[in-house]
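dumping the sequnces here before i forget
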Amino acid sequence: MDWQALVLSLQLAGVTLLVLLPLGLWLGRWLAYTTFAGKAVIEALVVLPLVLPPTVLGYYLLVSMGGASPLGRWAAETLDLRLTFNFTGLVVASVIFNVPFIVQPVQRAFEAIPRQLTEAAAVSGLGWWPTWRRVELPLAWPGILSAMVLTFVHTMGEFGVVLMVGGSIPGETKTIAISIYDRVQAFDLAAADRMAWLLLVLSLGAVTMSFFASARLAARR
Amino acid sequence: MTMHLEVEQAHPLPLSGAFQCEPGELLALVGPSGAGKTSMLRVLAGLVRPHCGRVQVGDEVWCDTAAGIFVPPQQRHVGLVFQNYALMPHLSALDNVGLPLLHLPTAERQRQARRWLDQVRLSEAQQNRRPAGLSGGEQQRVAVARALAREPRVLLLDEPFSAVDQMNRQGLYRLLADLRRDMAIPIVLVTHDLHEAAMLADRLVVMDAGQVLQQGPPAAIHRAPRNARVADLVGIQNRFQGRWLGPCGQSGWGLLQWSAEATTAAPAGDVPPPPRLRVRDKGRIETGQSVHWVLTGDAVTLVDRPAQAGGEFAAVVTEARPLGDITLLALALQAVPGVVLRLTLSGPQRLRIEVGAALTVCLDLGLAHVMPVRGR
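..and the predicted 3d for all of it:
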């Protein structure tokens, strides 16, 4: 069992979620409430990481964030930051490929809130913060929760993009999914088996829990 | 605190008109669906910003597009009861009513919310339930309590009775009557039920296609609708066509030729000449013009004698539909082929009437109201 890889994966999933959640809530809510010309283009861009082969996405991220690219040079010169083959690069890549997993469920959750309810809140004198805290958040919560679980679990298991952008540096970019591949390549099937099982149980458990929570919340209405 | 509203816009949906409502007065906006009734309420509540308009309550200007003033709904103190109540599904009745009271400390908020729910007669067990655990009528009373907890300067009700059965309706009518007595604020009610509007409202505002067509006390609108469309909208059944023949010599009275269609051609052959009626002349109609004219139910009676000149006509019953304590009658007049006269009968008289019976109707033509037909 590669504990270092497991911890790294958990860290990556946690940081990704932390960065992506505010962005996903904002973008999902905005897409749910607004209509404008060209909205379909934005929605298509949001879904793109879902349909693109991970190696293709990883390739473009590698090319655009590498040391030779303008973005990579800028990050190195102004922020003193390298964006490939390290943990920071993994986080950036992970945030990008998880966008559909958080934005789509959040968007659906906010779309499902009847407009009349937020109007009733406004007429009752509630400003944006009380409306958000007492009306929108509780009603959208099941969707937000499942978005969070999906993103977390998906990050834990991502392989292609991570390999392209991060390589396989132990303690820096070698996540559990890569470690499993590594072990299989080395014919250490026993270790691969244990890690695969762990990932399977974790994923199934998290998704089941989020479904239970959503069902319970829905039943309370 | 009188409420004034004035709107004029063509986009995104046409809306134009002006009305006002005094404290303690109940104003009903009536018209078919899509007439813009709810849009007017939304302008009042501040949920819609009109292209051009003005809303004033007492000396507070809530909206004045000319002066660039727009007070958001959060600062308007409007009590709005939504058509489907718009109760928060995740909050108890008590917490729903507590929403407009969030500025108060928790204990005081709960105390006041309970007081409002007691006033709309919700039991303590019901007060702790979520909307899904309440009947339609109970949900509606929660919505009314929430609107009142806002301490509104105007109370707006959007089709409040549409989703409630007849028994609950009676209770809500009483509640509304109590509110009017106790609160003394302008109340605006949106409804498509004319009977309800006429029963509850001091004044009606008749709307169609986003426009205010006419306003006034229900009886006045029924007696003298401004045009044929208003007559149809307020459910006047006896609307006829004819031609205005001008003054008849006696001051204040004129002659109306009654015909089934608004033709100016002379009747051909053996058809009897259309009857000429002596009706009130307000001097507004040109001689020879095609007109619509209406007669309220009060102006039609059945009499037991042969038809005499001046407002009495021989008729045959073509339809008799008993409905509980009343019977709806349709009569064909021999003097004006093609015309159907409708009236509602109650009392012993209706028991003798069946389809095919010949009888005499007496029309009180002093109550007839004549309107010019407008060219499109």
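Residues 3-33 of chain A form the longest helix (31 residues).
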